[in-house]
Write a structure and sequence with these properties.
By secondary structure, this protein is an all-alpha fold. It is built from 16 helices and no strands. Helix 3 packs across helix 9 and helix 12 runs parallel beside helix 14.
């Protein structure tokens, strides 16, 4: 009797990553951490909206402090993730995030919170994320290997988004019934939980930091740019990431402005917007996990879908319709995020994957810095609805241009 089909199902089944102890522990820890992070984002946005008096430019400026560190130092973070043990890096980053959330709690309890304090703590968290993002993605590959990567990333992201669904709901209840500072206390506790999980895991046997340390001599982003120039599909994904990051996905800004200026929502109503996005993200992650090796066509189609769904959201006549439309918007954004992450890791040279991930992250979030500022200013002049429609149309047009430039269309394969 041939056992090969059975063996194949053990490595390629939809739930096969859960057979790995390290992945199970990491995913469960991330579920808890994601719950805290989702609460943190809601509380942070609500505090800033209150402190800034609903000023769209000040709300948009938050992205400069969230994403500025990635724009400035993203390449260095990717190189660090290639050269050092990812588990140890994550222990350091998660511990630091816990300390920063605790500091945020102290500031909020002492109150009143000033805008510059929110900006400062946000910038510090952004510096930690420079290393945390590529290290986390590479550590996942270390744990499960390439054959399980797509399914593992889909399951991992689905669990993460489960926390993101519950987080806004819990945050809305806390903001309505207790001091908002408790949200940051809970967030610090969830980061501490994730650190404890990482301490129980051994360094994966597949960790390739020894060979990665010598790969590339030019520097973080220069190495990644050279690799993207060599592989057209990488260049297309990186460019699409810039489009989606800048104007295709700006939920923090657009939801805040729609909540405060278009619908006049309470804190609980505002939190429900983030929850609707996350429901869509959960569905998108599960669907993306079914594609073992997503193509550039899939990635570009998902990027264009973020623009289409965003434009439709801008046409929503009232809050209930807008809330429902955020679900497909979240679905499209997560389908793009997950498929692009898998394509990047499977297409880049193993010793450069951390740097290529950092390049995409830098482009995605760095362009988000410019996009958030631009959309915030435009929202002050034309209103948040017009911004959503305009950004959506521009996203679809840009994705079509990228597809034409790299000749990416159904039935083609770009290597």
């Amino acid at each position: 009797m041939d056992s090969r089909p059975a063996e194949a199902s053990r490595t390629t089944g939809a739930l096969s990553p859960l057979r790995l102890r390290g992945f199970r522990h990491l995913a469960m820890g991330q579920l808890v951490s994601s719950l805290g992070n989702a609460m943190y984002k809601v509380a942070q946005s609500w505090l800033l909206a209150a402190s800034a008096g609903g000023n769209g430019s000040l709300v948009g400026l938050l992205a400069a402090f969230q994403l500025g560190p990635l724009l400035l130092f993203g390449g260095r973070g990717g190189r660090i993730a290639d050269q050092y043990r990812r588990r140890r890096l994550l222990i350091a980053t998660q511990s630091t995030h816990a300390a920063l959330s605790a500091m945020f709690a102290v500031v909020v309890f002492l109150g009143p919170v000033r805008v510059w304090e929110i900006y400062l703590l946000t910038f510090a968290a952004g510096l930690v994320t420079v290393v945390d993002n590529p290290a986390r993605q590479r550590f996942l590959t270390d744990l499960v290997g390439e054959t399980r990567l797509s399914r593992a990333l889909g399951l991992y992201t689905a669990l993460l988004n489960t926390g993101q669904i519950l987080g806004p709901l819990v945050a809305g209840l806390i903001v309505g019934w207790a001091h908002v500072g408790w949200i940051f206390v809970l967030d610090a506790a969830t980061f501490a939980c994730m650190t404890a999980v990482l301490l129980t895991l051994p360094d994966p046997a597949t960790d390739d930091t020894a060979t990665a340390a010598g790969a590339g001599r030019g520097g973080g982003l220069r190495d990644a740019l050279a690799e993207a120039g060599r592989v057209p599909r990488l260049a297309a994904v990186v460019l699409a990431s810039g489009v989606v990051g800048s104007i295709g996905v700006q939920f923090t800004l657009t939801n805040t402005l729609m909540a405060t200026r278009a619908f006049g929502l309470t804190a609980t109503g505002f939190a429900s917007l983030a929850m609707a996005v996350t429901v869509g993200c959960l569905l998108g992650a599960l669907v993306a996990g079914r594609a073992a090796s997503p193509s550039p066509v899939t990635v570009l189609a998902a990027a264009a879908a973020t623009g289409l769904t965003g434009a439709v959201c801008g046409l929503a006549p009232n809050y209930p319709v807008f809330l429902v439309l955020l679900v497909p918007a979240g679905f499209a954004s997560m389908l793009f995020t997950t498929c692009s992450a898998v394509l990047l890791q499977l297409s880049a040279a193993p010793g450069l994957r951390g740097r290529v991930i950092a390049l995409q992250t830098t482009v995605f979030y760095g362009s988000g810095l410019v996009g958030a500022l631009l959309l915030g200013v435009c929202a002050d002049r034309f209103g948040p609805r017009a911004v959503l429609v305009g950004a959506g149309v521009a996203t679809m047009a840009a994705c079509a241009a990228i597809g034409a430039r790299y000749r990416i269309r159904p039935g083609t394969e770009q290597r």
